[in-house]
Every structure is written in C-alpha cells, then in structure tokens.
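lol ok so funny story. i was supposed to be doing the assay writeup but got distracted and ended up predicting the structure for this chain instead. priorities right. anyway since i did it might as well share w the group, maybe its usefull for someone
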Amino acid sequence: MTLALAPLGCGGSGDQAKARELCHQQLALMCHNTFTCPGVAERQTTYTSEEDCNAKTSPSCDGPTTCLSGKYHLDKDQQCLVEMQAVTCAQVLDGSGFPSVCLEVCTAG
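and the output, tada:
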C-alpha cells in the first residue's frame, strides 16, 4: 500500500507558517494512523515505523509552501486536518479515509 499525499499545507505568503504547521500535523496523523490501525502498516512498504514515517515525510512541509498554481485556502486546510482526525481505522484500511476537502486546499484561480 502506498500512501498518497495530496497538496497538504500549500500556503500563500501570509499563511506559510500556518500552512507548514498544518502540513506537519496532517502528515504526523497519517503516520500515526498507518502504524496504529490494525492491518495498515503491513500493507505499505515505504516506512518501517511511525518514527521513520515522520522523519521521511516531515521535511516535505519545510520547503516552499505555496500552491504551484491557483489559490490557497487556509480554511480548507484547517478543515482537512479536522476531518483527518475523525477518520476511522476502517476507513484508513479500505482507502476511503482521505477527506475530499483536502483536495480543495489549492484551487485554480
């Protein structure tokens, strides 16, 4: 199982610090779910532990945090984290646990 990362935490100039913080929280939650939900860790081959997952994914939040194109929506980014926190292990396991609002963080125009 490969975990897909959406454009989490992409932020405009005034929102970059908050965007980085949200990105770190979202990725930490993804790593936590990967290694605490029964049957999930066994299906992925990228990370060896929750700590390894955090170490490998966290730096992606520290680079440029602007949307590659379009507009950043801080409210959607925050809502993405809230909805990610409500995802159940069953949703993580069956692949339905990625909130659609996370895809609305960066929008065209």
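DSSP finds four helices and two strands in the chain. The chain has one domain: 13-107.
back to the writeup now i swear
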